[in-house]
Amino acid sequence: MTYRIPLGDWADSFVGWLTSALGAVFDLLGAVLRGSYDLVFPVLATPPFLVVALVLAAAAFAAKGWRLAVGSLLGFAVIRGVDQWDNAMASLALVLVASVIALAVGIPVGIWAARNVRVSAAVRPVLDFMQTMPAFVYLIPAVVLFRVGVVPGLVATIIFALAPGVRFTELGIRQVDGEVVEAGHAFGATPGRILRQVQLPLALPTIMAGVNQVIMLALSMVVISGMVGAAGLGQDVVQALQRVDIGLGFEAGLSVVVLAMYLDRVTAALGDRSPVARALKVRAAA
């Protein structure tokens, strides 16, 4: 006995129905995403290279110190030297827009899941699906719904990077000592006040680890999104693959690495600067 479940046909029909029934909604969503990118990209790409590089290095200095600032400047000089600066800023703009939206959705969902067992049970398999689905698959419905360009890349990146924001937020809040929360209740604090003044500050190091993962996943997906015409380093990576151009591929890939190291170090350092993280380090060293 042989059988075949037509899941692919159902998915194709569902996307077709979305396109015909909610076309206006997707057009509006695409316009909002495109507008968000058009706001961020000129801020990064219009000023001279040295101005943007110094601002980003100043952010690195504020996060971790002069070593990271100097290393960032050297990395940016390499990107500029291989003529990938404009592409790197396009990729950075996509990462920033996608990460902000993913965190704006993911952190509230994570808080909700941490405070409600049923929501957690419902969200968990969805997150499993989102994290294990191959990244390229997200591009297919995105292209059907939004055509090629920046918007499908942003949509695929937001979906792909969303899961760690939810998981780490839920994990961080669940790890808060129950006795501390009970003490808050005993002193008459409202659930909202306990969340704002107890749970979120104590969970901040874990939440920042989630922020770091969201940004890193967004960068990886932004590069893959070059296949559907998203701007940035991904386009050169795709061109290098199509032309078997080793030199162009290495230059674009090296620029991705520099950008990834900068974003990873800065966001990790911001997490380490939280009062709870510093207190844990002091206790571990004692």
UniProtKB/TrEMBL annotation:
Report the membrane topology from the UniProt record: Multi-pass membrane protein
User: A GO term (biological process) for this protein?
Assistant: choline transport
Q: Which residues form the ABC transmembrane type-1 domain?
A: 88-267
Give GO MF terms, alphabetically: amine transmembrane transporter activity; carnitine transmembrane transporter activity
Q: Known PROSITE patterns for this protein?
A: ABC_TM1
Cellular component annotations (GO), alphabetically ordered: ATP-binding cassette (ABC) transporter complex
- Name the major location: membrane
Classification via SUPFAM superfamilies: MetI-like (SSF161098)
Write out the entry's keywords from A to Z: Cell membrane, Membrane, Transmembrane, Transmembrane helix, Transport
Name the Pfam families on file.
BPD_transp_1
The family assignment reads: Belongs to the binding-protein-dependent transport system permease family.
User: What is the protein's name according to its record?
Assistant: Glycine betaine/proline transport system permease protein
